[in-house]
Model the fold of this input.
Amino acid sequence: MTATPLTGKRILVTRTARHAGNLQQALEAQGAVVVPLPTIAIEPPASYAPLDAALARAESYHWLILTSANGARAMGERMRALKLAPDRLAHLQVACVGEATAKAAAEAGLAVSLVPKQSVAEGLVEALSRLEYPIAGQRVLLVRAAVARDLVPDQLRRMGAHVQIVEAYRTVVPSQSIESVRVLLAPGAVTPDAVTFTSSSTVTNFLDLLRAAATNRPNGLRAVSIGPITSGTLREHGWEPTAEAARASIDGLVEACVRSFGG
Done:
């Protein structure tokens, strides 16, 4: 294989174990040595009751907004558990924060109406503000994680929309990753060259893992971010990203890794 800037570079992948595969394969295709380190595990919400109630009265909403692929998948799984056909939501306008979320929504049987050009909450809000028919007065169901930024619901309410937020899943720090960090960053171990971050949660959870393992961030460890929000979280913690993806996608993140090493 022709050498690339990533050949032989040890790169940590912080995505959930379930979703790390595509990124791992893409990095390995560039010659990287990938070390999986899940910083997030997806678990059910504390209660499904609010989501179930919202789905039962789906006809009362005009819009469904999905702000993550995990949320779209979790909602689809709950619909199947309730034996609720996607047709029950066919009247809804469905807005997704990005292409990955739209793909997950489509896999759940939903027809996606709106995907912003910029795959962040700000891009979604801007796209909704430019609708031919204003969202003011519309009833909006926002399905998301238990802990998430409030930018989308806050801005939609300012536009006059009636927004209900329901939780479809929780993100937690995998306890087994604490020991993985201790082993990976133990004295004498081969230090990773870079770590990839696909969300603000992966940043904060990675740093929480370091603290739980009583381990410091290695000097020179490069942070590669999937987008501006994730980069902002890194900077809040005093860690300047070496590179940021131009597109919030697996390919964009791999390209950023290549740039991080001079490619």
User: Anything to note?
Assistant: Strands lie at 10-13, 33-36, 41-43, 63-66, 93-96, 139-145, 162-172, 194-197, 222-225, 243-244. Residues 10-40+173-260 form a domain with the Rossmann fold fold (CATH 3.40.50.10090). The mean pLDDT is 92. The chain has two domains: 10-40+173-260, 43-170.
